[in-house]
Each structure stands twice: as structure tokens, then as C-alpha cells.
Amino acid sequence: MRNMLVKPRVLVLRKLTAEVEERLAKTYEAVFSLDDKPMVPEAIAQALYDYEALVPTVSDRITAVMLKGAGVRTRMIANVGVGCSNIDVAAARDAGIAVSNTPDVLTDATADTALLLILSVTRRAFAAEKMLREGRWGGFSIVGGLGASIQDKVLGIIGMGRIGQAVARRAALGFGMKIVYYNRSPVSGLGFEAQGLDSIDAVMAVADVVSVHVPGGGGTPLVTAAHIARMKPSAYLVNTARGDSLDQTALIAALAGKRIAGAGFDVFAKEPEVPETLRKMENVTLLPHIGSATEEVRTAMGHMAVDNLDAYFEGRALPSRVV
Fold first, then answer.
1. pLDDT in tens, 46-88
2. Which domains does the chain have, with CATH numbers?
3. Cis upstream peptide for 275 (omega within 30°)
4. Which residue range or ranges hold the D-isomer specific 2-hydroxyacid dehydrogenase NAD-binding domain (predicted)?
5. Known active-site residue 227
């Protein structure tokens, strides 16, 4: 157990909510981001030599090269996010560096965002609002701006973990959608009707809407161009997982070629870059990675990261240890 009379040096790479930063300042010699801008890789690499712990977010990449440097001082990385695809966790394990994440607290908020995107793209909300804001709306029309209803349609979930289940539950019980899903491991105790299929291809072929909830950071997207090619021309795809969870280039090509009806994005392959081709499309809804962006959830995520820091420096088991 560490002597907490000597405050550990902790670098917080991005701004957290005021409540969380106040808590950190009381316990640690904490250095906070003043401008909330991403740190350049060279600065993150240097921070590993200067601080005993880092508090990054999912957009702050910590690579194997950074972690394997001789003389790295950092022993704990408390990631603010449900995933850790921004961190080379294998290299952290080899270097004896603990890594934690913030699961569970953002499940409902992210599921809400997925439903927001599903409703937006199927009802053509962006195109309708754009028309109104630009002064092109001529009044009510029976046949103008028609979207698609989701009641009795098939929602395909790729990745039936906590968030995937929360989306499916909302869609099934709240909107009357039929649920199919693919998950690498068995799923039970859902509390609503859902059919597991044996492949991503099988889900893509039958779904009217596909919602992606698989990890990124694996090099090759789990949802590939071949998977996207299996979708029906009338189908929609929504991604609230990670930008590299699917082949973004293939999805854009499918949209441009009208091989699918539309898509909703909350995450992108190279954030904050969003391809111009995508930004010009009216059959998509684009959100700037706001899946968990509520005051309550972002504060809870921050507190969970600090809980892990506290546990590490007090010699206790981490509440949500990844490595």
C-alpha cells in the first residue's frame, strides 16, 4: 500500500466534469487539460515518464512503443470509456502497468443514442430539418419526405453485450421491432423475444436496421465490406461502437451507390475527421461521438476512473480492471 501522504502525480489528458476534477485535486497532484484538445503523441509518450498515473479518454492513443520505453514511470492508466482500444493492453500487461475502464455507467445513454440514430435515419430527420432551416419547406404534404416505420421491422444487433441488449430491449418492448442478433458467446436471460443467428452475414441479410456494438482497435474491422454487401437495399446501419468497428470506406461506398437506404454514425474511423462525401449526404445522421454525453453519465464515468485510481494507490483490487 502506498503512503498517500505523498500525493501521486496524475495527468488528466482531457477535461472532465468539474465535480470529478475537484475530487482528483483533493487526493492527487493532478495536472488537468486547460483547452480540452487532444495531446500529440510525443506529449503522451513523455507523460509516461513524468507521471505515476494517466487518465486518458478513448481518443488518446497509448501505443506499445510508448509503453515499452525504458524508464517509464506510469504504473496505472485509468481510461475514461467502456473500451480500451486506444491502449495497447498487451504491452501494458508486459510492462506491469495496470489499466482500468468505466463499464456499465454509459450503457443506457449509449443505447438511447443508438435509438436516436435509428429513428433519425429511418424517418429522414436530417433531410427534413435541413429543408426547413433552409427555407425550402412548402408546407404539409402527404407524399413528401417519406421515411420508413420501424414497427414490426427486423433490428439486427451485431454484438449482444450490455449495450446491444439495452438497444434491443428498447426496440423490442418500446417500438415493437423483431430482434435478431449475432454474438460470439451464448446469450441468455434477455427478458424479451430475440433470435440468435450464427453469423454476421446472416444478421445482415435479414435485418431492416443493423446496430453495431462490437469492439474496435483490432486492426481489421469486425464488420467488413463483405458483410455490408449482404444488406438489403432498403436497410439502414447504425454505429455507436467504435469508428473502426466496421469498414467505414465500404459503408460510404454502399451509401453513395444507394445499395443501402441510409446510416447513422456517432463514431468515425479517424476522429475528429469526417469524410466530406459523408458530410454531404442527406440519407445519414452524423453525431460527434456523443453516445455517453450527458452530465450524469460523464460524471459517473469520471468517478469510476477515480475509484480505480484510489484502489490502485491504496493497494486494493481495481473495481473495473482490464489489465
1. 999 999 999 999 989 999 999 998 899 999 999 999 889 899 9
2. 9-105+295-313 (3.40.50.720), 107-286 (3.40.50.720)
3. no
4. 116-291
5. no
